[in-house]
């Protein structure tokens, strides 16, 4: 294995490493019922990938204290984690092979996610891929959500790399915009079907693929060159 080739790959999680959208949507629906409200598929699509505090305020209103926001976010994630554990989580096509190839080629890898730390820990445990990552950045590490680049900039800094030496793997326009705002290369993945190739390209993606079977360390080196 080549040690540290001076480049990094920062991975979003949902829709990129795994697809747990069904469990997230069900959890938000349950929280909405608790609040005697509703949560539609359109609202889910518009907010997926953002931080819980921002979603809660946008969907359920501004009249919540920080304590309330934390409590509601924890309840939603409790619903989600129970479903994820019961159903199980599978890596998306091409993910495991690419993780291995990148590690062998000397790329440093990180997770940059809007998800709470507990979700990341659960997914890493269920998929057994923690060994491929040098670091991870979760919701608790940030104060601003995508399309702000904060999450990816923190990940790059923890890897000890300049943003221009990093590629971000994303499935959402907000994540692509965040990567580009941070001065990084962005690869969009359409497999889960949340967003079209055209939308990811419009957000600034340098490359859009259906699955990560279409991406190799050579592909990433070419994009970074």
Q: How would you characterize the overall build of this protein?
A:
Helix 6 (117-127) links the parallel strand 2 and strand 3 (135-137). The protein is built from 10 helices and 6 strands; from the N terminus they run E-H-H-H-H-H-E-H-E-H-E-H-E-H-E-H. It has helices at 21-34, 41-47, 52-60, 66-87, 95-104, 117-127, 150-159, 173-181, 197-203, 217-224; strands at residues 8-11, 108-112, 135-137, 166-170, 185-189, 207-209. The protein folds into 2 domains: 8-19 and 90-224, HAD superfamily/HAD-like (Rossmann fold), CATH 3.40.50; 21-87, DNA polymerase, domain 1 (Orthogonal Bundle), CATH 1.10.150.240. Helix content is 48%, strand content 11%. The chain has a 6-stranded parallel β-sheet with strand order 3-2-1-4-5-6, with helices on both faces.
Brief summary of the model shown:
By secondary structure, the chain is an alpha/beta fold.
Topology at a glance:
Elements lengths: L7 E4 L9 H14 L6 H7 L4 H9 L5 H22 L7 H10 L3 E5 L4 H11 L7 E3 L12 H10 L6 E5 L2 H9 L3 E5 L7 H7 L3 E3 L7 H8 L1
Parallel strand pairs: 1-2, 1-4, 2-3, 4-5, 5-6
Helix pairs in contact: 1-4, 3-4, 4-6, 8-9
Tally of individual domains: 2
Bin the helical content.
40-55%
Mean pLDDT: 94
Summarize the main sheet.
6 strands, parallel
The CATH topology assignment of the largest domain is Rossmann fold
The SS-based structural class is alpha/beta
CATH superfamily of the largest domain: HAD superfamily/HAD-like
